[in-house]
Amino acid sequence: MRKNVIEIQNLTKQYGKHRGIDNVSFSVKEGEIFGFIGPNGAGKSTAIRTLLALIHPTSGSATIFGKDCIKEAPSIAKDVGYLPSETFFYEGMTVKGLLDYTAKLYQKDCSKRIEELTERLKLDTSRKIRDLSFGNKKKVGIVAGLLHSPKLIILDEPTSGLDPLMQDTFFEILKEENEKGATILFSSHILSEIQKMCDRVAFIKEGKIISLQSIHELRSSTYKSIQLSTKEPVSKQVFTLEGISEFKQQEEEISFMYNGNVNNLINSFSTLNITDIFIEEPSLEEIFMHYYQ
Question: Most C-beta atoms within 10 A of its C-beta, which of 64, 71, 113, 289?
Fold first, then answer.
């Protein structure tokens, strides 16, 4: 049985009267890619920064590798790679100078890894940070977070500023790190990224965890998207089965969402002259709207 790399218990952070996070609890298993999803302002970054001891919690506790995140933060940091949602560097340094400086902090020879990552991300290491675009600064952050081959990778909105091709390269790199044994906590408001990468997902809304499920459970326990074609128009009265919603009909073409036993649905169609039927699992976008409306 895999042990937990991250354990968060009732973690709360308040900013005076303003909400940060409220009694957040979840764990991330060794070797897992865990999605942390919610709209901007939901509390994702606050939870991550508290986990990394960049800010201290009002109450609750968190551990990484079984170590207290506040008391043992320096020891934990040696094996953690972190990419914040916004990256800020010494503007006068070259990319190479910054990455070499970062490697020294870990007291490791990371030169081969730096060369590999910068080549794959098409990053010019001779340029100064101040001359880089937002996307290239994000690439510097990615390399800085991965150059020491961390056991735990924490990513906060990591793809903002990257073009689609670079995003694909980035995801390939992450999958390779995961295959080597790295655990990944992936925070995003972009559902397709979570769908592509993660094993489990936690939804956060207004500072609170509202759902924690595997991607498979999330889909199987929610709505199905149904599309039907019939030989002749069918009365809407046929579709009175409990669990049907968002019903739309245009002559012989019918579509609706269904939440319930699919066998019951199929049985209710037995009297219809169906020419085609399409049953689709909902996208995470549809699931996301279900939780946030």
Answer: 64
